[in-house]
Design goal:
Layout: E1 10-15, H1 19-25, E2 32-36, H2 46-59, E3 66-70, H3 79-89, E4 93-96, H4 102-111, E5 120-125, H5 134-139, E6 146-151, H6 153-160, H7 172-184, E7 188-191, H8 200-213, E8 217-220, H9 226-233, H10 237-251, E9 260-263, E10 266-269, H11 270-288
Parallel strand pairs: 1-2, 1-8, 2-3, 3-4, 4-5, 5-6, 6-7, 7-8
Antiparallel strand pairs: 9-10
């Protein structure tokens, strides 16, 4: 299944308790803004952050940026109140942490029953327990608001007792399984954060790796990372030329009914036509911004 064509190249986390940082996101080129109530907010600031996130959602002004709120988990003292308040505010999506089983999707979906129909449910893939049941979790998209997977490599590393080093070797199988499960069920898939804020080469390498695996974009922890990820996850000139050539070839007289065509010395099938259309749809939305 093809993922949605809406660009989600850069997914920037910002503490909902930091009013100045939240205001700044309205001027950034990030595709998605995540107002964080979880990891980025200290326990004593949780309620204040919740109120600030709700106020920001209702105030709006984020333009083309998709607005998401990451709530605390239902197992915490703040989760239920977070979900109730955020559901009433109606952001584009609600992101929930540390799910461990497919049944968690139904639980969180029920907690968002009062949210507008357009509000989606995104989940963090960041526990060891969820890895063996990724396909079952993704399949819940057919009966719930679920529409996205976001990698939480920091929490996953903590549970695995693994190290996040250049190349991210311990996580490669999980990255692949996450994308496969997402694509099989029409979900978006967003790669995890790069902790090395000042290391442009490390960020570029992780972005390139995420693209190779098929992720739609990358989670970010600093505004300085946005432009690099937007550039990396945008269709390249070569990709656009290829996509235009494929679409034109299948639209040409005589191509009707054919499942495969020869283009520039290579065999191109209908599945490539669908890929080309997706690339052009993403590029058109990027250009419109």
């Amino acid at each position: 299944m093809q993922p949605p064509s809406r660009p989600r190249r850069s997914v920037l986390y910002v503490p909902a308790s930091n009013a100045k940082a939240v205001a700044k996101t309205r001027t950034l080129s990030a595709d998605v803004i995540v107002l964080d109530l979880e990891d980025a907010v200290a326990p004593e600031a949780k309620e204040e952050a919740r109120a600030a996130a709700v106020a920001a959602v209702r105030e709006g002004g984020f333009g083309h940026r998709e607005l998401v709120v990451r709530c605390n988990g239902l197992a915490t003292p703040w989760g239920a109140a977070d979900l109730a308040a955020v559901a009433a505010a109606g952001p584009d999506a609600v992101l929930v942490p540390k799910i461990t089983a497919a049944t968690d999707v139904a639980t969180y979906d029920a907690a968002l029953a009062a949210a507008p129909r357009a509000t989606q449910l995104w989940v963090m893939i960041e526990t060891c327990a969820v890895v063996p049941c990724l396909s079952d979790v993704a399949a819940r998209a057919a009966t719930s608001r679920l529409s996205g997977f976001l990698m939480g490599t920091n929490d996953l590393a903590k549970e695995m007792q693994a190290r996040i080093l250049p190349g991210r070797a311990p996580f490669l199988p999980i990255l692949a399984l996450t994308v496969v499960a997402a694509r099989a069920n029409g979900l978006i898939a967003i790669d995890g954060v790069c902790n090395a804020i000042d290391d442009a080469d490390r960020l570029a390498a992780e972005a390139a790796q995420g693209i190779e695996f098929g992720f739609d974009g990358k989670s970010l922890i600093h505004p300085a990372q946005v432009d690099a990820c937007n550039a990396a996850f945008s269709p390249s000139t070569d990709e656009l030329e290829w996509a235009r050539a494929v679409v034109a070839a299948f639209a040409a007289p005589g191509a009707g009914g054919k499942g495969a065509l020869r283009i520039e010395g290579k065999m191109v099938e209908l599945l490539h036509h669908a890929q080309a259309q997706h690339i052009l749809a993403v590029a058109a939305q990027i250009d419109s911004r």
